From TrEMBL:
Gene designation: purN
Site feature: Raises pKa of active site His: D144
HAMAP family from the UniProt entry: PurN
Sequence similarity: Belongs to the GART family.
Name of protein: Phosphoribosylglycinamide formyltransferase
Catalytic activities: N(1)-(5-phospho-beta-D-ribosyl)glycinamide + (6R)-10-formyltetrahydrofolate = N(2)-formyl-N(1)-(5-phospho-beta-D-ribosyl)glycinamide + (6S)-5,6,7,8-tetrahydrofolate + H(+)
Keyword Transferase recorded: yes
Length: 203
């Protein structure tokens, strides 16, 4: 299955997906990386792996819809059937979400439905959480609100700071996202209405 990855920045989750997809047994190949920011470091990383990487600079478009149309065209031209959001920091319109319904997934750095949105590590610490985590979910119109495919949890340790919690969680994200993409690409996770059906054999 051909996969496009959408990024806005450093692209460490994108890199984890690229590395995982190098395995011959992996049921997906990364064929395109798209960034809404031309300066995203992940673009050059993708190119260094021989993957087509394009910036569709949101500043060059008069509307969100026009920008998304260009992004969608690039994805469709690549033949990608699955879209992975990996640190893509721009909200998507319902129209774009509908175009890739059941085929677009996102990784979020919290145990959803706790802490949708930004600043998740600070908010988890402030809430006194003893566990923090990350979630891969199907993308729906509701930001960070779609059906959950897979999650991983890490302990919050005494003395944890935002920075070291973020770093430890990132390592968990890099394991979780390839696992979740494998489930979706192989048909073992799919969206049915408002729910995700996940075959747990491999979970
Ligand atoms: C990650 O924490 C991801 O969960 C969130 O944005 C961050 C992106 O980091 N959605 P990277 O660009 O993958 O390194």
């Amino acid at each position: 299955t051909r996969v496009a990855v959408m990024i806005s920045g450093r692209g460490s989750n994108m890199s984890a997906l690229i590395e995982a997809a190098k395995d011959n047994d992996f049921p997906a190949e990364i064929v395109l990386v798209v960034s809404n920011k031309p300066a995203a470091a992940g673009l050059d990383i993708a190119r260094s792996h021989g993957i087509e990487a394009v910036a569709v600079d949101q500043k060059l478009f008069s509307s969100r819809e026009a920008h998304e149309e260009k992004v969608a065209e690039a994805i469709e031209a690549s033949g990608a059937r699955i879209v992975c959001l990996a640190g893509y920091m721009r909200l998507l319109t319902p129209r774009f979400v509908a175009r890739f319904a059941g085929r677009m997934i996102n990784i979020h750095p919290s145990l959803l439905p706790l802490f949708p949105g930004l600043d998740t590590h600070r908010r988890a610490l402030e809430a006194g959480m003893r566990l923090h985590g990350c979630t891969v979910h199907f993308v729906t119109e509701e930001m960070d609100g779609g059906p959950i495919i897979a999650q991983a949890a890490i302990p919050v340790r005494p003395g944890d700071t935002i920075a070291n919690l973020e770093n430890r969680l990132l390592a968990a994200e890099h394991r979780l996202y390839p696992h979740a993409l494998r489930l979706v690409a192989s048909g073992r996770a799919r969206m049915e209405g408002a729910r995700a059906i996940v075959d747990m054999e491999e979970a």
